[in-house]
Amino acid sequence: MGIALLELLLIIFAVVVLLLLITQIAIPFVQGTPFFPQFRKSTPLKEQVVAAGKELEEVTEYVHLKEELDEVNRRKAKLEGK
After folding, report:
1. Pick the residue with more confidence: 10 or 38?
2. 24, 44, 53, 66: most buried, per Cβ within 10 A?
3. Residue 70 is part of which domain span?
4. Are 17 and 31 in the same domain?
5. For residue range 35-68, what is the model confidence (pLDDT) as tens digits?
6. 28: how many CB neighbours lie within 10 A of its CB?
7. What is the Cβ-side half-sphere exposure of residue 19, based on CA atoms within 13 angstroms?
């Protein structure tokens, strides 16, 4: 019985190590992200870069929506002019 429990614990340990390798090394390697990201400290510069990226996304979305609105208004004016 003791050997069966030891084998079970060994299998569980192997599965945990395999999952750790997959989630913390293999997937980040494929995606091009840092390994073990939860152990990295967030620096003020990184926070500024993230904030600037979010702001850029918002401005880009605003510009795109503004262009769509202008197109809709142009079409509406064209139809009203007929």
Report:
1. 10
2. 24
3. 41-82
4. yes
5. 887 777 778 888 899 999 999 999 999 999 999 9
6. 14
7. 6
| The token pair that represents 24 in the structure block | 């913390």
> In whole angstroms, what is the distance from residue 60 CA to residue 47 CA?
20
> Considering its fold, how many domains does the chain have in total?
2
Of 46, 50, 21, the residue nearest 36 (C-alpha):
21
Sign of the alpha-carbon torsion through 52, 58, 59, 60: positive
Looking at the structure, do residues 6 and 26 belong to the same domain, yes or no? yes
Which amino acid would we find at residue 8? L
Q: Examine the domain organization and report whether 22 and 52 are in the same domain.
A: no
Our separate counts of H helices and E strands in the chain read 3, 0
